[in-house]
Amino acid sequence: MKLVFAAALLLSASAAAQAEDHLFDELRFGASASIQSGDEHEDGVFPEVTLFFDPFGHNEAIGIQKLVRPRIHFGTSIGTGGEATQVFTGLSWTADINDKLFAEAGFGGLIHTGDLDDDGDGPALGCRLLFHEYVGLGYRFDAHWNVTAQVAHSSNADLCAGPNDGMTRAGLQLGYKF
Which residues constitute the domain of residue 138? Predict the structure, then answer.
């Protein structure tokens, strides 16, 4: 009975959100790979999912107003082959180059499952909470679909005791804008 009630509540909340506005602004999914070398390189491919929210009205803003109205992002990069999984959140700024091309930058934080100390296999990250920033260049196929090439870096900025090798990954994400 609790499951039926929860499902009904979720459906009614979802319908209400869709009637007024979309809960999510955009959903992206794709994959990345480590672009670091030597002992700091992470093996494997990292499936990624990122959700974007627009509570500040970024989509309605014009010109320079877009800078003071970022979107909120929340996502994950899933470690394969024993490498670090990341859960990240932060703010994202998108600048249109023209109707089809856009540039994007984001800044925030993450928590990860990677190595804290140097064991010779992958980056030594020093602490669980890291800063997370990314830059990307994207192409819009139409009003809903886009693809983004992205480079993301995470590190502790030497704010915690221990090593700070950081993680740097590059990849592609396919996006759907609601």
Answer: 22-177
Q: Is residue 15 part of a domain?
A: no
Tens of pLDDT, residues 87-145: 999 999 999 999 999 999 999 999 999 999 987 678 999 999 999 999 999 999 999 99
**Three-state secondary-structure class, residue 98:** coil
Q: Is 92 domain-assigned?
A: yes
pLDDT at 8 over 80: no
Tokens of 45: 């491919």
CATH number for the domain that contains residue 77: 2.40.160.20
Length of the chain measured in residues: 178
Task: DSSP letter for 123, please.
Answer: -
CA distances from 58 to 53, 62, 69, 100 (A): 10, 8, 5, 17
The first and second tokens of residue 57, run together, are: 């009205």
